[in-house]
Design a protein that fits this description.
single chain; mainly alpha
Length: 96
């Protein structure tokens, strides 16, 4: 489910903060986002929710709340191109 949270957070221009109780929850979210970054950008561009394990019961409801936003997808995707690397987040180096 973390990737669904990341999808809606990254897709939103008004997202400003996230509160987590345990830092490992946030780190897991960032790592998953890094692994699935291309899929997230594609979902934002096309307004789709991917067919992921564990979301079958709520997928229909989630799809009502996502709209295709190719402009936002281009903005998010440009982060990777600016960094010139395969992922967005790099642990132990500069993080973006």
């Amino acid at each position: 489910m973390a990737i669904i949270h990341a999808l809606f957070a990254v897709g939103s221009r008004s997202f400003e903060s996230m509160i987590v109780v345990f830092i490992n929850t946030f780190v897991d979210l960032i790592r998953r986002l890094d692994r699935e970054f291309d899929m997230v950008v594609d979902c934002i561009a096309n307004g789709i929710i991917p067919d992921l394990d564990g979301i079958a019961e709520v997928r229909r409801h989630l799809e009502l709340n996502i709209v295709a936003d190719p402009e936002r997808a281009a903005e998010v995707g440009s982060v990777v191109r600016l960094l010139g690397q395969g992922g967005v987040f790099t642990f132990g180096q500069t993080c973006v």
